[in-house]
Design a protein that fits this description.
The complex is a heterodimer of chains A (329) and B (320).
Chain A: H1 14-39, H2 54-62, E1 69-73, H3 77-83, H4 87-95, E2 118-122, H5 128-141, E3 148-153, H6 160-171, E4 176-182, E5 185-186, E6 189-190, H7 200-206, E7 211-215, H8 219-234, E8 240-245, H9 263-270, H10 274-282, H11 286-309
Chain B: E1 2-3, H1 4-18, E2 22-26, H2 42-46, E3 51-53, H3 58-70, E4 74-81, H4 82-85, H5 89-96, H6 99-102, E5 112-117, H7 132-136, E6 142-144, H8 149-161, E7 166-171, E8 178-179, E9 192-195, E10 200-204, H9 208-221, E11 226-230, E12 233-235, H10 239-249, E13 252-259, H11 264-276, E14 285-289, H12 298-304, H13 308-317
Parallel strand pairs in B: 2-3, 2-4, 4-5, 5-7, 6-7, 10-11, 10-13, 13-14
Antiparallel strand pairs in B: 1-8, 6-12, 9-11
Helix pairs in contact in B: 1-8, 3-5, 9-13, 10-11
The chains are: A alpha/beta (329), B alpha/beta (320).
């Protein structure tokens, strides 16, 4: 049964709507499975879930091309999946397998796939920002029309590296797109308790960087804003910043008892679940949703099977790749 | 004759001429000509794109060097002094050193970071320490300390040929010394015997080399023929050369401007004990900086730093 839906009114084809839905659901279901596998002990270390923020990664990636570069944070599952990293390799990475995207050396926080220009998840808050500036510096010096998109959270905004990087990128007019995922909490510290200035447009203006604030629960708004940002940066306008107002529905990590915010607050945000909002706004019918869910479940099942089947890196290779053998790539 | 500072500049000039991917960035490297005048004139020769003044943002510009290296360029980053480099240590340890490993071998970081180190110029406790061991501690990076004019040039070129991050420590008292340049490639990671001898091995690096050679000359007057090993590379350590020397002399003194506790001298002494215990006729000895933040007053700073006198006294205390 084909049901007319609101997408057409917004200029979104049904195909694109279902594609965006699928991308968000891939992240949601992948992470739910990861949490389950964590509880079973198949995944260890830290596991930071992106659930609730899917519209940001999915929307933003729509506007970035193959040649563009991505720098992510330790909450990187959504970015990696939306960028097209194979979910099996991501799951295998969290299992610690040699078949993982970082050969089991990185884990959940450090997904890398240079072939897809995914330059990693950075777990020192703010630590990826100078790397993004450097990637963009190389492109500027080589006169390549490439944009480096750098995700960071509200915790990073109060790190010195954020300010140094904004200043340097603006000073040298580098092609960096700063993507601010404001989920309102740096671990358990609310932004009101850590940021003296909550207005990011004002902060950015202080560096001469154009900024806009977007509803991070609206995947189409995210995609449209990112498109504007990418276009501005690619045209040589220097860096650009977009703030996405979003929320993580789960705790900071699997170790977090989530005592610092009220259930009411979480419930209120859950009413703005980016997937539910999108399904409603697009008028996606149950049968279509079920079909997408099924495809997502199939892919996830294969990803887990891939992770389970993977080999462990031999302990004899423990010291491999501390240094490069042969010339630099 | 060429000065050490000119030699570093010459190395960078050759690299800039020979490889369009090479560029220099750091605080005051351009218009000012470098805090130690190392890059004087390079701005005119190579222009502001490749001789790039940075704001005082150590973490951002060292991190930007890492990013540019990942993206295929060959940056030389100058940090004004080793004490200032602490502001970028996050980028060094958590990114430069770790990215190759953490990415499962997907990335290399062919970055060169140069900085002035060491005391002796009455600059007190925030400009004059010798913290090289903090870098030498970290797997994933390499650390070198050119002590001669020839090495000052060739180590820049050798560092740029490496596919991994190399930190070059230039002792600030060495910039005006004069010597001869040498052609040819220098393999990184090899120590050099600067004075052959048979009675005792004096192991040192960087600015302490010249004090150690002076001590060796004085000891020669006593009939004690010291061998002086210049480490050149602080990571990796060329223990083969050190142990070959100790096999000859059976005594070793390590001269290291770092503080004694947890020093490179401690590491070398331990490795000599582990690998060459049977070679030793005397416990390994150390001449390091006294464990105080560097004082300003000259007589106090002189007393805090290793000196030829302290090296000579240490050797004389070792049984003949």
């Amino acid at each position: 049964m084909t049901v007319p839906h609101a997408a057409a009114a917004q200029g979104v084809t049904r195909e694109r709507a279902l594609g965006l839905l699928r991308e968000m659901l891939r992240i949601r279901r992948f992470e739910e499975k990861a949490a389950e596998l964590y509880s079973l002990g198949h995944i260890r270390g830290f596991l930071h879930l992106y659930i609730g923020e899917e519209a940001v990664a999915v929307g933003a990636m729509q506007a970035l091309g193959e040649q563009d570069r991505i720098v992510a944070t330790y909450r990187d599952h959504g970015h990696a999946l939306a960028r097209g990293l194979p979910p099996g390799e991501l799951m295998a990475e969290m299992f610690g397998k040699a078949t993982g995207c970082s050969r089991g050396r990185g884990g959940s926080m450090h997904f890398f796939d240079v072939s897809r220009r995914f330059y990693g998840g950075y777990a020192i808050v703010g630590g990826g920002l100078p790397i993004a500036v450097g990637l963009a510096l190389a492109d500027a010096l080589e006169k390549r029309p490439v944009v480096t998109a750098c995700f960071f959270g509200d915790g990073a905004v109060v790190e010195g590296e954020f300010h140094e990087s904004m200043n340097l990128a603006a000073l040298w007019r580098l092609p960096v797109l700063f993507l601010y995922e404001n989920n309102l909490y740096a671990m358990g510290t609310a932004i009101e308790r850590s940021q003296a200035q909550l207005d990011m447009e004002l902060r950015a203006r202080g560096y001469g960087v154009p900024a806009e604030v977007v509803d991070g629960m609206d995947v189409l708004a995210v995609a449209a804003a990112t498109r504007r940002g990418v276009d501005a940066v690619r045209q040589g306008g220097g860096p650009h910043l977009i703030e996405f107002k979003t929320y993580r529905f789960r705790a900071h990590s699997m170790a977090d008892p989530d005592l610092y915010r009220t259930k009411d607050e979480v419930e209120q945000w859950r009413e703005r679940d980016p997937i539910d909002l999108f399904v409603r706004a697009q008028g996606i019918d149950e049968a279509s949703l079920a079909a997408v869910e099924e495809a997502v479940a199939d892919e996830l099942e294969q990803a887990v099977a891939f992770a389970e089947a993977g080999d462990w890196e031999p302990v004899g290779d423990l010291e491999q790749d501390v240094y490069t053998t042969g010339p630099a790539p | 004759m060429t000065t050490y500072r000119e030699a570093v500049r010459q190395g960078m000039r050759e690299a800039l001429e020979g490889d369009p991917r090479v560029f220099l960035m750091g605080e005051d490297v351009g218009r000012y000509g470098g805090a130690f005048a190392v890059s004087m004139g390079l701005l005119d020769e190579f222009g502001p794109e490749r001789i790039r003044d940075t704001p005082l943002s150590e973490s951002a510009f060292v991190g930007a060097g890492i990013g540019a290296a990942i993206a295929g360029l060959r940056p030389i980053v100058e940090v004004m002094t080793i004490n200032f480099s602490m502001l970028a240590l996050d980028q060094v340890v958590n990114n430069a050193a770790a990215l190759r490993y953490m990415s499962g071998g997907q990335l290399s970081v062919p970055l060169v970071v140069r900085m002035a180190t060491g005391g002796g110029r009455q600059l007190a406790a925030q400009h004059a320490h010798s913290l090289e061991v903090w870098y030498a501690h970290v797997p994933g990076i390499k650390a070198v300390a050119p002590a001669t004019v020839a090495d000052a040039r060739s180590m820049v070129l050798a560092a740029l040929a490496e596919p991994d991050p190399v930190f070059v420590f230039e002792h600030a008292t060495l910039y005006p010394i004069e010597g001869e340049l040498e052609d040819g490639d220098l393999p990184l990671g090899r120590a050099a015997v600067r004075r052959a001898g048979t009675a005792v091995t004096l192991v040192t690096y960087g600015g302490s080399l010249w004090k150690t050679l002076a001590a060796a000359e004085e000891l020669a007057g006593d009939g004690v023929d010291a061998e002086v090993v210049d480490l050149r590379s602080l990571r990796p350590l060329d223990m083969e050369t050190v142990l070959e020397s100790v096999a000859k002399t059976h005594r070793v003194v390590i001269v290291d401007e770092g503080w004694c506790t947890g020093s490179l001298a401690a590491e070398i002494g331990m490795q000599v004990s582990e690998e060459g215990f049977d070679l030793l006729d005397w416990p390994p000895q150390r001449v390091c900086s006294v464990e105080v933040p560097m004082p300003y007053a000259k007589h106090l700073e002189d007393a805090a730093l290793p000196s030829a006198e302290r090296i000579v006294a240490t050797v004389r205390e070792m049984a003949a």
